[in-house]
Amino acid sequence: MAQKIKFKEAVRSDFHSDIKARVNKYFTDNNLSSKANGAMVAKTVFLLSAYWICYAIIVGADVWWVAKLPAFFAMGLCVAGIGFSVMHDAAHGAYSNKEWVNNMLGYSLNTIGGNLFTWKIQHNILHHTYTNLYEYDEDLDAGIVVRLSPHAKRRSFQKYQHLYAWFAYSLVHLSWILIKDFKKISHYNGSGLTYQNKAKPTREVGIIVASKLFYLFYMIFIPLKYSNLSVGQFIIGFLIMSFTSGVVLSVVFQLAHVVEGTEHPQPDVDGVVENNWAKHQVETTANFSMDNGLLSWYVGGLNFQIEHHLFPKICSVHYPAISKIVQQTAAEHQVKYIAQPTFIGAIGSHYTILKKLGNQD
Is residue 291 part of a domain? Predict the structure, then answer.
């Protein structure tokens, strides 16, 4: 990062204080915990069980290999679902008041190919603090392949990114398993972010290596040795699983920030961002398909991304209820609240922005 960023607190927005007070009052008045409830626990059990049932079918079922392809596809959906609905809340400390519960469920990310520590730095710290600030929010960094910010350098081939980005998204899971975490930990160790987050570089590197080896052992070695799949058949199935999870994970997260209407501000020469933190979070973020209960269940409330950015330590099961409070308070304080009515509409909006970013400086 080039310089230290500050948000304007002059208008410490009555918006920020009002919204916190009203949301806190909602939980107090209804005698509710802001953490996971029974429905959230049931969803967690379902998704984790579904993942391992799919795995058991792939390894143990004595059926024609084509009949196993739906299990690979479903496993890909489970990978994304676990990331959205189990790991994400736990990594933010939103699942439970008990740290060990959050840590245990957060490490579910390591079992599906990722790494909890690098995720927390990239997502919890850099993305949630510097949302849509180019060169500060690492979620906007897709290398030279896809341009996700108007402040990134535009390359001529990116005029086609609205067409090929979807394939690039499908590779995210493979990159996650094989490349991304190693690059991130190297960067965080070198920049001092690992120490700043009270972790030891050698320990975190060791955890990454050990968890990657564990994943490759159970996900590749065991099926190849004990299932009735040939190498070629397994590769086809594995790619179906990986491409499915990659596309679903990428698209859902992109619909939150790289769509029509969201702001992409830049700090001034002194590193000051025009808005206070709360207003910045709302105006750089978008919701979608807020009335779709099934979608909300599957994506862990990430279709209520505005509420998540304002209250990341509140469990996602509460977002539909508090969204009404957030919308009303934003309207009172004239803060732009962006929401696409449908999932398809949000995808169309992302497509439009990809095309615009690929063709305009």
Answer: yes
Helix H or strand E encompassing 288: strand 286-288
Contacts of 159 (CB under 8 A, 6+ apart): 358, 359
Q: CA 209, 214, 216 angle in degrees (round to 5)?
A: 95
Is the model's pLDDT at 8 over the cut of 90? no
Are the C-beta atoms of 131 and 278 separated by less than 8 Å? no
> What percent of the residues of the chain are helix, what percent strand, and what percent coil, each to the nearest 5?
65, 5, 30
Domain annotation covers residue 109: yes
What's the CA gap between 50 and 56, in Å, rounded? 10
For residue 6, count other CB atoms closer than 10 A to its CB.
Answer: 13
CB distance 333 to 326 below 8 Å: no
User: pLDDT-based confidence at 3, cuts 50/70/90?
Assistant: low
Looking at the DSSP bridge assignments, the partners of residue 286 are 338
Structure tokens at 186: 């190297």
Is the pLDDT at 11 greater than 70, yes or no?
A: no
Residue 1 lies in a domain: no
Sequence letter at residue 338: I
154 assigned to some structural domain? yes
| Strand 286-288 versus strand 272-273 pairing type | unpaired
* CB-based burial, 285-297: b 16+ in 10 Å, e otherwise: bbbbbbeeeebbb
Contact present, 11 and 276 (Cβ < 8 Å): yes
Residue 67 to residue 160: CA distance in whole angstroms: 36
**Separation of alpha carbons 223 and 75, rounded Å:** 14
**Domain tally, the chain:** 1
Query: In angstroms, rounded to a whole number, what is the distance separating the alpha carbons of residues 146 and 137?
Result: 15
Residues of the chain with pLDDT > 70: what percent? Answer: 98
Q: In the block, which residue shows the tokens 């995210």?
A: 172
Question: Which domain, by its residues, includes 207?
Answer: 6-359
